Amino acid sequence: ATPMSVMVGVGKAAEAGVLIRNGEALQTASKITTMVLDKTGTITEGAPKVTDIIVAGSQTEDEILLLVASLEAGSEHPLAMAIVESAADKGISPKKVTDFASLSGMGVEATLQNKKLLFGNEKLMKQQGIAIDKFVDKAQQLAAEAKTPMYFAVDAELAAVIAVADPIKSDSIEAIKRLQNNGIRVVMLTGDNRMTAHAVAGKVGITDFVAEVMPEDKAKKVAEYQANGEIVGMTGDGINDAPALAHANVGFAIGTGTDVAIESADITLMRGSLHGLADAIAVSKATLTNIK
Ligand code: ADP
Ligand code: MG
């Protein structure tokens, strides 16, 4: 395309709230054959809320929430925000923990009053050798409801399961349909567990999804599709999406997402809506047609 037609295209896209950082991305957008979508914060609002607290022992829900909120106070993960906010809503103030550590793609750990606190997914509990049998069925039931269940252990003993739900953005279903109607294969990629991923994918009409992806493996997945001859678009909002956004043929960042994601992407969807994807592709097609 001529520099002039690209400039016109960039302007047109901007009107739709789609910020294009480089002209080449605009020209590649219409050639995308596979669009990879992150789940949390991309398909969903990314603002999960606590829905269930199931206690194993004699503690109350509020006592559990105090411990988990104290543990999560040091994390910036959307799941941590849900816990901390839920505690705040109940007037529970977190206590100061020591030895806090964030275990990427799995959860968090810390020490409080000489007790070792551990909170996260099944992978984390398995890795730490904590028996979760008691709550596996319950967790699966919560996941089938598209909620994300997390396990809480105190001194290597299972103490509770807490579930959060993250609403799907109101226009994600329509926006995904537009991509599919363009003949694009849409794939969902998430660090969340397989059952929850299955439930969310089903709700938005996606049959192709990969769950329990470790942060460092998102870019590998993009490379894999590219090696199969696909032109890959990647859409994400998180720090853990940044390498995949940079690796994709066209990276799309959610404008309300992290700065790292925005800096790694070619195109920013200022309105946060996935409709920006089909809009960008339409502008791309028009730009290329104009020069022929
Ligand atoms: P994604 O943002 O795609 O869901 P992440 O790699 O950030 O992927 O998280 C994957 C999973 O790891 C989460 O679904 C959750 O089970 C667990 N996890 C990550 N961070 C935390 C945290 N701060 N608290 C509890 N669980 C967490
Ligand atoms: Mg995300």
Automatic annotation (TrEMBL):
Molecular functions per Gene Ontology: ATP binding; ATP hydrolysis activity; copper ion binding; P-type divalent copper transporter activity; P-type monovalent copper transporter activity
Keyword Nucleotidyltransferase among record annotations: no
A GO cellular component annotation in the UniProt record: plasma membrane
Swiss-Prot/TrEMBL keywords: ATP-binding, Cell membrane, Copper, Copper transport, Hydrolase, Ion transport, Membrane, Metal-binding, Nucleotide-binding, Phosphoprotein, Translocase, Transmembrane, Transmembrane helix, Transport
Biological process annotations from GO: copper ion homeostasis
Compartment annotation: Cell membrane
Signal peptide per UniProt: none
Superkingdom of the organism of origin: Bacteria
Family (UniProt): Belongs to the cation transport ATPase (P-type) (TC 3.A.3) family. Type IB subfamily.
Name recorded for this polypeptide: Copper-exporting P-type ATPase
Coverage span on the entire protein: 392 to 683 of 743
